[in-house]
Amino acid sequence: MTPLVYGDVFYLPANAGRLSAYDALTGERIYRARLSHGGNFTASPVAADGALYLPTNDGPVYVIRAGRKYEEVAVNDMKESVTASPAISDGVLFVRTRTRLYALGSKDAPTP
How confident is the model over 70-98, as a mean pLDDT? Predict the structure, then answer.
């Protein structure tokens, strides 16, 4: 797990399902929140199109709206551990669990 800077916010996930956000220029804490289903992190978060994607060791991948207010948009339960960082390409989020690789995106996303 590593921190993530997206826009002007520095995001820091922590075990026990916590996410803190700081102003990237001043270091001032903006919020500290607990994710709805908790979780521990091995994989690093990624961001695209105004959202953060935080995979957990327990299976849920959290979708958090980027910005200065904490907003949990979705929780996608992958049903098994996610310890590899997701990848994003052409509007598709690739998530590898212990035994599977998922490609998540809209039907309009380009076919790789």
Answer: 94
